[in-house]
Structures are given as structure tokens and as C-alpha cells.
Design a protein that fits this description.
Keywords: Hydrolase. The chain is of the alpha+beta class. The protein has four helices and seven strands; from the N terminus they run βααββββββαα. A hairpin with a 3-residue loop joins β4 and β5.
Amino acid sequence: MNFVETSVDVRYAETDQMGVVYHANYLIWFEIGRTKLIEHLGFKYADMEAQGILSPVTDIQASYKKPLTYGQQAIIMTAIKEYSGIKVVYLYEIYNEDQVLCVTGESTHVCVKKDNFRPISIKKYFPEWHEAYLKAIMID
């Protein structure tokens, strides 16, 4: 798979009473990784939204392997796992700076019209995105 890498420094406010990253913050980091992947492909979510199209999460999963703590760096690896022209499944792997796998996850999205939330064909509405997604998923 063609992974795109981005990183974030673990901030104190992102940790819980045990001193480890609070579990919900990984979902925010998934979003950061997903946004960077889309930018890497040459696109922006904001441009899609300006055209009245949204990309809501329809399913999300995270599996916690090792804790990340304040002061560490989280390295977010993001790839397109599946793409059907309507549905996109993104794959995430988050490592610490020592290359230890800490979290894995997936999120599923569909593009919908903002006014009625009906799914749209990415191929029809955004043919450049469609082609870029096909190319990104074909790389293994």
C-alpha cells in the first residue's frame, strides 16, 4: 500500500490520568493523517465541501497495541485500503518515534450531498479524485 506519513507531538492535554494518550485522540490523529493523504494526492476536503459535498464517517475502528505518552512523537501512516467509487476505507498505523506500532485502525467514508445526505459517485462528481484514488490503491 502507498502510505503517507505525518507526525504530531504528543501534547500534555492529550493524555489521561494514567499519563497515556486518551483513546479518542487517536481518532483526531486519524483525521490528520487522512487529510494529509488527500493533500498528498493533490486535493483538499475544503474544496469538496465548498461544492456542497461532505464525507462523513460511516464506520471507525481502532486497536490499541502500545501506549503513547506525553513528549513522544506519534507517526501517523495513512493509506487507502478500499475504494469502490462511492465508499472509501482508509487504513491507519500509528507508531512512536522508536518505530513501535502503537495503534491500528480503519475508517469508512462515503461522499454525500450536503443538502440531503444522499451518497454521490466520486467518479462522476470528482473524476480527478477518482483517478488518484484508483492509482493510490493499486500500489502495493
